[in-house]
């Protein structure tokens, strides 16, 4: 544990995700934001954060590696291609790296499904925004019902999809599909991503179509409600807009409205993955505090 009983934190990336994430970390009681890192001092995000008084650097991953005191936690909000290098260079420093890119390099974590596993790993992958919105529900339903096919259709406003995300569209789809398969044990999975140019911007939403056996409306809705209740402990703007069952088919749709911070309400895609990543980091901080307390007693 670092000063004031909080873990020291760095954020890699000063795009849409990085700026909002840095703001969220600043409000945390257990995390201490020590640095936000970019690669170009003239980027709007880095300049905005510097103007807010946050510590920034334009030296990239070197800022985290060439330091006398390694960071306890680093959030990687860059792109999937860069993450492998970041993980490799930070590994000797014992820094927990929480990856918000769809790199598939680290251990996949969805907080309400397997969040407790994060403590045992040093490279955590947060899957994707669509994965964080759909997997808690799909995991809950698939535990109680035999599901043979899952289709996940994610729609995000164009203005909420930054440059790094656009570089990783293929990785986004593949990582989401892999994660749904992993957490539901359903082999036949399809993921689709729609980037909407609509005006006004479309609020982030995810539609899930399922084909299975012995589906009952009451049991499906019960599992969905329980999963959503768990999610709302850290993402308040999560709402179910449809939940229907017709024979062997079920359809579930959700919408995520951002709580604000540095992003608009329609950008729930950014809010949900940032909130999930923050939740993992705070749970890690809590476990570190327990260990430190036990060692002192």
> Structural class of the secondary elements?
alpha/beta
Q: What is the beta-strand fraction?
A: 25-35%
Low-confidence stretches: none
In the sheet with the most strands, the strands line up as: 3-2-1-4-5-7-6
Please describe what this structure looks like.
By secondary structure, the protein is of the alpha/beta class. The protein has two domains: 3-126 and 272-296, NAD(P)-binding Rossmann-like Domain (Rossmann fold); 129-267, 2-Layer Sandwich (Dihydrodipicolinate Reductase, domain 2), CATH 3.30.360. The protein contains ten helices and twelve strands. The protein has helices spanning 16-26, 44-51, 62-65, 80-90, 111-114, 129-144, 163-167, 169-184, 217-231, 268-296; strands at 7-12, 31-37, 56-57, 73-76, 96-99, 107-108, 123-125, 146-157, 188-196, 205-213, 238-246, 249-256. A seven-stranded parallel β-sheet has the order 3-2-1-4-5-7-6, sandwiched between helices. Helix 2 (44-51) links the parallel strand 2 (31-37) and strand 3. Helix 6 (129-144) runs parallel beside helix 8 (169-184) and helix 6 packs across helix 10 (268-296). The two termini are 16 Å apart.
